[in-house]
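Late entry, evening session. Most of the bench is empty. Finally got around to the prediction I had been postponing all week. Sequence below, unchanged from the version circulated by S.P.
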Amino acid sequence: MENVVTQHITKTPGVCGGRACIAGHRIRVQDVVGWHERRGYTAAEIVEMFPSINRADVYAALAYYYDHIDEIENDFANDVQWARWAENNLPSQIPPELKEKRSG
């Protein structure tokens, strides 16, 4: 199985912060997990959204996730932490229409 995953998943310094991605794409394993596990998209629906990938890529990303849950969950947590920092420290950078949506 490890061979199959490494065919489809890469970690390249300077690409998506060195996070695990579908090989040859900037689609992170974390993105696939979010769409599939948290939003309920099927592998076929994810491929429809990104026709340059295939179902094997999606399933390899999910396999990578289940083999590296702590790593990917840490990526999610880091993104949340960064978003909170940005919200508190860069309020002038948030477009007014987004501020209205958040407060509404």
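Two things to note before I forget:
Strands lie at 9-10, 21-22.
The chain has a mean pLDDT of 87.
Will write this up properly tomorrow.
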